[in-house]
């Protein structure tokens, strides 16, 4: 059994906690929150005893708790780095939500801290365990689509409440690109199956009043891959129904819409509809992470800190391309 403490008991943590109920090899054995009432109610709901409940000041003490193997960080993006380093120093494995950190420099610090502590660092890339996504990746690996020429990734939604942390640069680190555009970045890499070598990007704001300096609303970006494929992607906080991947090769195509939501996802290729049953992504993810941490069984697409860092390097390059108007070369 992988015994996990959840750090940050907000909206997504609730989804993860519910999904873990169906896991075969994962159990919630610790809770970390700044709200005593949440610790109490979640503690009784998930059977976590009082001595395994912590707040943001004292959670370094998880190091003394033999019932916790890993801590899953599910807080606003700007808190990930410091919290991950504290968890690593407590000698527990770190599972961190996406984006792993605010930029590549922070990501590198997290990787170094986990390495120094001898613990693993994983990123909550749930789609790397999702059945339709992995089926398409396998088809690409087996050559079903032929040489890959093009990927399109459209990731966005209309954001609500302007006071939420996602609309504050200090906590979010950016805007739509950090939050939802990262799915198109990550998806371009696992769908094409190569690491991009250049980035171009353009930012537009249809609502500059609402999206303040540093909180990007809409960014279009293009990635170039060594095999000649290009990706054309869009990330936005101001459009609806934008959750689509399209992969085009010389012998076939794959299309997913929705492609990254909580599912059920829908996928078809030149051979027809993919008829694969939906399983809650976070249940598959957490059992997959248990297999990785307990048995060393690697998922089809990595979910380690290096994988998170590659995405952060691309996000940095996209922002740099927007700011400079110039093509950015990448070394991943
Ligand atoms: P949320 O606002 O619902 O929850 C955030 C939690 O962090 C809250 O419980 C809040 O109290 C706590 N928190 C601690 N310190 C805080 C501070 N200084 N300011 C604000 N809140 C603070 O957000 P969420 O949707 O649960 O997102 C949390 C993380 O999970 C983000 O990194 C996000 O990108 C990620 N996420 C991932 C997925 C996915 O599908 N993998 C989906 C949603 C969110």
TrEMBL record:
Q: Where is the GFO/IDH/MocA-like oxidoreductase domain?
A: 138-254
What the entry lists under InterPro entries is as follows:
Gfo/Idh/MocA-like_OxRdtase_N, Gfo/Idh/MocA_domain, GFO_IDH_MocA-like_dom, Glc-Fru_OxRdtase_bac, NAD(P)-bd_dom_sf
Pfam families attached to this UniProt entry: GFO_IDH_MocA, GFO_IDH_MocA_C3
Q: Does the keyword Magnesium apply?
A: no
Instruction: Enumerate the transmembrane spans.
Output: none
The domain of life for this entry's organism is Bacteria
- Its recorded name reads Gfo/Idh/MocA family oxidoreductase
Name the protein family: Belongs to the Gfo/Idh/MocA family.
Q: Which residues form the Gfo/Idh/MocA-like oxidoreductase N-terminal domain?
A: 2-125
Q: Which UniProt keywords apply?
A: Oxidoreductase
Does the keyword field hold Nucleus? no
Native species: Ravibacter arvi
């Amino acid at each position: 059994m992988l015994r996990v403490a959840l750090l940050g008991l907000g909206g997504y943590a609730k989804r993860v906690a519910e999904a873990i109920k169906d896991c075969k090899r994962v159990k919630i054995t610790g809770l970390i929150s700044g709200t005593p009432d949440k610790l109490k109610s979640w503690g009784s709901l998930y059977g976590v005893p009082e001595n395994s409940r912590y707040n943001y000041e004292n959670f370094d003490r998880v190091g003394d708790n033999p019932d916790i193997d890993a801590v899953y960080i599910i807080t606003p993006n700007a808190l990930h780095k410091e919290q991950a380093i504290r968890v690593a120093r407590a000698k527990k494995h770190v599972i961190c939500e996406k984006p792993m950190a605010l930029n590549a420099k922070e990501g590198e610090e997290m990787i170094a801290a986990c390495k120094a502590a001898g613990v693993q660092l994983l990123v909550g890339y749930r789609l790397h365990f999702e059945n339709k996504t992995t089926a398409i990746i396998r088809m690409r690996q087996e050559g079903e689509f032929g040489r890959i020429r093009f990927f399109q990734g459209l990731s966005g939604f209309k954001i609500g409440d302007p006071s939420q942390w996602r609309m504050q640069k200090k906590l979010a680190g950016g805007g739509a690109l950090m939050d939802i555009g990262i799915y198109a970045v990550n998806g371009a890499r696992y769908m094409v199956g190569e690491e991009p070598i250049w980035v171009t990007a353009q930012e537009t704001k249809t609502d500059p009043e609402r999206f303040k300096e540093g909180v990007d609303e809409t960014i279009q970006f293009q990635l170039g891959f060594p095999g000649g494929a290009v990706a054309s992607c869009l990330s936005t906080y101001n459009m609806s129904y934008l959750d689509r991947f399209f992969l085009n090769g010389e012998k076939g195509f794959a299309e997913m819409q929705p492609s990254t939501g909580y599912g059920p996802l829908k996928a078809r290729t030149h051979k027809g509809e993919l008829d694969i049953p939906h399983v809650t992504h976070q249940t598959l993810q957490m059992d997959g992470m248990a297999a990785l941490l307990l048995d060393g069984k690697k998922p089809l697409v990595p979910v380690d800190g290096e994988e998170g860092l590659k995405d952060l390097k691309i996000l940095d390059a996209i922002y740099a391309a927007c700011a400079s108007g110039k093509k950015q070369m990448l070394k991943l």
